[in-house]
Amino acid sequence: MLHPLDRRSFLAAGGAGLGLTLSACMSTPKRRVVSGRMRHASIGVGGMGRVDLERISSHPQVDVVAICDVDSAMFEEAAEFAPDARRFRDWRELLLEMADEIDSVSISTPDHMHAPIAMRALSLGKHVYCQKPLTRTVEESRALLRAARKSGEVTQMGIQNHSNGNYAAAKELFERNLIGQIHEVHVWSDRPAGWWPQGVERPAGADAVPETLDWNLWLGVSPERPYKEKMYHPFAWRGWEDFGTGAQGDMACHLMDPALWFLELGAPRRLRSDGPPPNGETYPLWSRVHYEYDANRFTTRGPLLVTWHDGGFKPSVDLCARLGTDRESLPANACLFVGTEGALVANPYAAPQLLPAAQFEGETIPSPEGVNHWHQWVYACFGVGEASAPFDYAATLTETALLGNVALRFPHETLEWDAGRMRFPNRPEADAYLSSRPRTGWSFL
């Protein structure tokens, strides 16, 4: 039996997500509800996968019955949280052999394997928790959204900041309507500098594959290439086009989240990159992408401009001066709403700020408690509350970031985006970057 929940726990489990967006509530099929204990399988248990395993397994009604990783060296630390779990190298074997013995799956692999695994898990009727970004391509995101809607399973993307107290505080300030109608938004990140390589060419030669690693399984749907020590596995894959989605794919799902969430944004109408293009192997060292959205009830009359900056770039000196601050005082990663009456900084790692500070002196900054993002999903699998970042919402957020990566390939060009038809009418060549062809034997769509 599910442990009884008091009213506060119920709200913490799901209530925070109930007003997220209209799309987050668009589940047509009846939800499948777990009864008894939830039997869980964790796929990818190194890095963030270890964190996901730890947090999900800490729920008192979850039994982790299987763990999977292409690198068996990851099993030792994972065993601390799943000592009795069966171990697999190949996720396909796990889902085949244990299809009747698991209720849910978490996916914490490199980006290129999110969609194949999630699609298979949903087709088997499993609830899915998937790390961000949801997919590596826009086509995958659309396909995974369709699969999730058809299945009726409970889904959640791993954007734990969405459930933390700092974003809840920023949302409360935004809803006080202190800064007026929004006319521009800036989002920025310090990635990739110092985190993983970008703007580099493919290394020459090949190194011996570690005995613990199945390199063919690690490559999965991506093209063949030689193993090179410390260049891809276990973490540096993010900057490579074949495996990751670069700085924007990694961080926009965290940092652009408030923009889409607070302003209830859907798809942009057009976008433009002002930065350098990728080199055919890795994403550039920095980027700046401008998105243009139709006005809505939160914005001024003109189009809303949302600008993404990475590589350590931030909003302009002039804008900072108008807001009574300077670049150095801004956080390394944040989302800035600029309105007719002031500005709001939503920071996933610290309390929100109102600017200019002198104008809002005395305004109380709220400090609500956060929600356990992992447990919220587990409770939703039991039929208690809702997941706050289901694939209905996560697909839109992911697609926004991935469109930015397409724009990088056509610097200084404005790309018109037809979301309904999934194409760029004024630049058909860009359509080719909305999808990718999987390696022979790895087709999944």
Number of helices, where a helix is a run of at least 4 consecutive DSSP H or I residues? 13
Q: What helical percentage do the residues reach?
A: 25-40%
Q: Biggest β-sheet: count, sense, barrel?
A: 8 strands, mixed
Spans where pLDDT lies below 50 across 5 or more residues: 1-27
CATH class of the domain at 7-162 and 372-389: Alpha Beta
Strand content: 15-25%
- What is the fourth-level CATH superfamily of the domain at 7-162 and 372-389? NAD(P)-binding Rossmann-like Domain
3D architecture notes:
The structure is a single chain. Helix 3 (75-78) links the parallel strand 2 (62-68) and strand 3 (86-88). Strands 13-12-11-7-10-9-8-14 form an eight-stranded mixed β-sheet, covered by helices on one side. It has a domain at 7-162 and 372-389: NAD(P)-binding Rossmann-like Domain (Rossmann fold, 3-Layer(aba) Sandwich). The protein has 13 helices and 14 strands. Helix 1 crosses helix 12, helix 5 (114-123) packs parallel to helix 6 (138-151) and helix 9 (246-255) packs antiparallel against helix 13. By secondary structure, it is of the alpha/beta class. 50% of the residues are buried. The chain has helices spanning 7-14, 48-57, 75-78, 91-97, 114-123, 138-151, 165-175, 215-219, 246-255, 257-263, 317-322, 373-381, 391-408, and strands at residues 38-43, 62-68, 86-88, 104-107, 127-131, 155-158, 182-188, 270-273, 288-293, 304-309, 334-339, 343-346, 353-355, 414-416.
